[in-house]
Amino acid sequence: MSATTDQVLDFWNQRAGLGEWAGTNDILAKRLEMETLAGFVTDGLRIVDVGCGNGIMAMELARRFDVDVTGIDFSPEMIGAAQKLSAGQAFRGRVRFQVGRIPGVEGMAPCDIAYTERTIINLRTWPEQEQAIREIGTLVKPGGMFLMCENSQNGLDELNDLRERVALPRIQPPWHNRYLIDDELAGGDFGVLTLERVVYYSSTYYLFSRIVNAFLAAERGESPQYDSPINQLALKLPAIGQLGQGRLWIWRRTREARA
User: Fold this and answer.
1) 70 versus 10: which is more confidently predicted?
2) Total-model pTM
3) Which of 68, 87, 124, 211 would suit a FRET pair with 3, their CA atoms being 20 to 30 Å apart?
4) Are 16 and 78 in contact (CB under 8 A)?
């Protein structure tokens, strides 16, 4: 049975005060996501972070670049935490936070880049996910990008097939997540957006962390640690292949919205 919207909201409200760990317990995976997204940002852009959580990514972009970032999230507690964390900080750019949800983000001023970071997977059904992607496209200026940094069920399945070969248990998505599925994305209606390419940025990291590190920990009778030297090494290596649940779908707004 899928989680209700209220259950998911309560979960994220409770994690709002966890600082760097609010969005995930795997901080290295979070840093990899952040570096991947930051690679598409330059000075002068207007950016919308859809599902910003406690604002860690939005603040990092405003710290590195002269950009204007608006973060929105459906969790009032997360937005409150973001406002507190950003208060008094020195930024090159500007950053602000407000409560909002997807679907339901229409009406904001057009931006150069919109992005999500494991946000759409919090929606319970494919129709909701499809609608959210379509709506986020309307936030972007013609020619602008939607950077969809989300988790793939297909990528996780491939990872689990390898885990089974070395007697590791299959990983299940968190109870509050519905990972994206390739066949659904291939047949979806995304309005003004055109998919340009998919970046398999996490392939090496997940191979090392969820297979190599997990196997060695199991051999020692221990639980794998997210900050292990093996996982840290993986961050320094280029992505190889298409393994790994974390993927970046790069969408471009190529046309006007239909009347």
Assistant:
1) 70
2) 0.94
3) 211
4) yes
